[in-house]
Design goal:
This protein is an alpha/beta fold. The protein folds into 2 domains: 256 residues, TIM Barrel, CATH 3.20.20.70; 95 residues, no CATH class. It contains 15 helices and 9 strands. The strands form 2 sheets. It has a 7-stranded parallel sheet with strand order 1-2-3-4-5-6-7. The structure holds manganese (II) ion. Manganese (II) ion binds next to loops.
Length: 371
């Protein structure tokens, strides 16, 4: 379940244009996302238009509208043509008292009424327990049980403030599933850097749905990242969802630009440094056989392997680089070049460009090397 267009856009300072939303929805559908949370129709205006346009694209993915447990919210989602609705309300006392200023009983009533209303009108319902992580377990189980009785297809377990760790997640999600007998979607936030880990822990505990966003975009530190979850399931969890992962970098770059949120080079799965090797021992290993230092092939996500020449390089990298330029170096030549590379790299405080390597060669050996 991808919520780039809802939770992702809720990131402070992020707005997508409607054209961007439509393009993102098409991309998500094409790469294999099963359900897209397209927005909050009751907001009206452009938001409503965007959800409506996405519903009309005829995508394979189910299109979900986000709602409060309020009849007019759900009517707005239905009017857009959503085949699925999310009905969201807080279940923690902290939220019930301090935000909603109401009672546990009233929260149950609102949720049940809205769910029963939706049940007669839409194919699929997710009832979202906001701040589930800080909710009293007995009440959360009661909430989930009542939601199922009212017709909910699944419960969204929201770690709204990102307070879980994988061990607590496992225990709590397992308890909800065992005691309420419901399907669960994990909705995790990255405040302590564990959004992806917690989502996977939820899957281990029996959750069959994961809410994600491209690049982990989302409120504060963001959500579990689509690309991280899919690749971790595939390579660590042995669950291949059949996504077109080779488009991950393209989708990531598009969402990065559309959201105005640049990715750090060290971003997991799609960062530009994922397959860049500089240090002598690593580069030597990766050149001999990439499986020594790479967990999957770069092409699998749309990246390229890159041997970076800089302070930490070794002679194997230098020789391989010059082989790319059509030049076979002796060990002695490679050693001499490496000394210069290290000195220049420290002076410049960065790795070196190809041109700079060629200049070093020319300075040392005094011949034109660009042939
Ligand atoms: Mn959220």
């Amino acid at each position: 379940m991808d919520t780039t267009l809802r939770d992702g856009e809720q990131t402070a300072g992020v707005v997508f244009s409607n054209q961007e939303k439509i393009r993102i929805a098409r991309m998500l559908d094409d790469i294999g996302v099963h359900q897209i949370e397209a927005g909050i129709p009751v907001m009206g205006g452009k938001e409503q238009e965007a959800v409506e346009s996405i519903c009309k694209l005829g995508l394979k993915a189910s299109i979900m509208g986000w709602n409060r447990p309020v009849i007019k919210d759900i009517e707005a989602s239905l009017a857009c043509g959503c085949d699925a609705v999310a009905i969201s309300i807080s279940t923690s006392d902290i939220h019930i008292k301090n935000k909603l200023n109401t009672t546990r009983g009233a929260v149950l009533d609102m949720m049940v009424k809205a769910t029963e209303f939706a049940r007669e009108r839409v194919d699929y319902i997710s009832v979202n327990a906001e701040d589930a992580s800080r909710s009293d377990m007995n009440y959360l189980v009661e909430f989930a049980t009542e939601a199922k009785k009212a017709g909910a297809d699944r419960i969204r377990y929201c770690d709204t403030i990102g307070i879980l760790d994988p061990f607590t997640t496992y225990e709590r999600v397992q308890t909800v599933i065992e005691r309420a007998g419901v399907e669960v979607e994990m909705h995790t936030h990255n405040d302590f850097g564990m959004a992806t880990a917690n989502a996977l822990a939820g899957v281990k505990a029996g959750a069959r749905f994961i809410g994600v966003t491209v690049n982990g975009l989302g409120e504060r530190a963001g959500n579990a990242a689509l690309e991280e979850v899919v690749m971790a399931l595939k390579h660590i969890g042995n669950i291949n969802l059949g996504f077109k992962t080779e488009r991950f970098v393209e989708v990531s770059e598009y969402v990065s630009r559309a959201s105005g949120r640049m990715l750090p080079p060290w971003k997991a799965i799609v960062g530009s440094n994922m397959f860049a090797h500089e240090s002598g021992i690593h580069a030597d290993g990766a050149l001999k056989n990439p499986i020594t230092y790479e967990v999957f092939r770069p092409e699998e996500v749309g990246l390229l392997r890159q041997i970076v020449i800089g302070k930490h390089s070794g002679t194997a990298s230098i020789k391989s680089k010059f082989r790319e330029y059509g030049k076979e170096l002796t060990n002695e030549q490679a050693d001499m070049i490496l000394k210069q590379v290290r000195a220049l790299s420290v002076d410049m405080k960065r790795s070196l460009f190809d041109k700079e390597l060629i200049y070093i060669y020319e300075d040392l050996f005094g011949e034109q090397s660009d042939k």
